[in-house]
Amino acid sequence: MPAQYSDARSEEGSTGMPEFGDSIDLATFEQILEMDDDEDEREFSKSIVYDFFSQAETTFEKMDSNLESKDLDQLSALGHFLKGSSATLGLTKLKDSCEKIQHYGAHKDETGANVISDDNVCLKACGKLIKQAKEEFREAEKALRKFYHDE
Amino acid sequence: MASPSTRIDDGHDMDSVNSGLMREKLSVLVVDNDALVRKVHEKIVSKLKVAKQVQIQTATNGKEALDLHLSGSSFDIILMDMQMPIMDGTEATKELRAMGVESMIVGVTSADARADKEAFTEAGLDQCLAKPLTADKIKSLVETLEKNK
Questions:
Q1: Which stretches of chain A score pLDDT less than 50?
Q2: Domain that holds residue A16
Q3: Name one GO biological process term (chain A) (predicted).
Q4: Across the interface, which of A31, A52, A90 has its CB nearest the CB of B36?
């Protein structure tokens, strides 16, 4: 069964709060956990999380490729795409980085409020943010794999 | 392109305190191009037990949502993502309202741009909610549906 609770589990069925640090918003992630029919197997939430791992890996590959080909429109679309599922799972740091990629890909600054016309500035920012997003993903992935006993 | 999927949950044996007052049926359409988000929203709705029978269908973009309506389907609540390929949520909402669809259409978006959200709302939404959707947000939508009956 998933572990890494701050309270020691003294008996079957007892619940505790998983420890994810600041990479995952617990309140949001707990919404996903609440959908599990079985707190030991956690079939539903595990399937969602592991689907997300695949989705993120694929999206990062596409981001790398589009960064190489300097396709800002695609980078913006990919940032937006990964932002949605990150938000759904409570991966707030990753969601924020994806949002910034979305903005820079659309020739805006990281807030989305101001236009940046220089492609090179936007591409450079996207490059840094993709690297940051990957690190944030790895951090969340490590914590989640530990939670599901898959280290 | 993935075809719309349908799921029916029978809440007859659930333990709701107000089961005697529960609506008979709730039909929900989840429109989102992200399969993970569709799966989560579908599960949230199915777990809510806000009706004796909950029917959920999904569509991967606005055009699929439109096609469902053109083929005769109707829904109590449509959860509509804003940014989707082929036909986005704003366009789909406009088209559905132009067709005379009176369902509750709720925009669900992770977008921050105010102008985009305003255009989405003006297309004919009843409400616009931020991702992630939660059980409480959806319960509140059903309560609004009941009030407006």
A1: 1, 3-16
A2: 3-147
A3: phosphorelay signal transduction system
A4: A52
Complex ipTM, two decimals? 0.78
Residue B129 lies in a domain: yes
Output the pLDDT for position B8.
Answer: 67
Report chain A residues whose CB lies below 8 A from the CB of B110: 80, 83-84, 87, 95, 99
CATH of the domain at A21: 1.20.120.160
Residue A135 burial (CB count, 10 A): 14
Q: Domain of residue B73: give its range.
A: 23-147
Q: What is the CATH number of the domain that holds B110?
A: 3.40.50.2300
Residue B12 domain-assigned (yes or no)? no
Specify the 3-state DSSP secondary structure of A19.
coil
CB of B40 within 8 Å of a chain A CB? The answer is yes
The four Cα atoms B115, B116, B119, B121 give a dihedral, to 10 degrees, of -110
Under 8 Å between Cβ of B62 and B88: yes
pTM: 0.83
Helices (H), A2-118: 26-33, 43-68, 72-89, 92-105
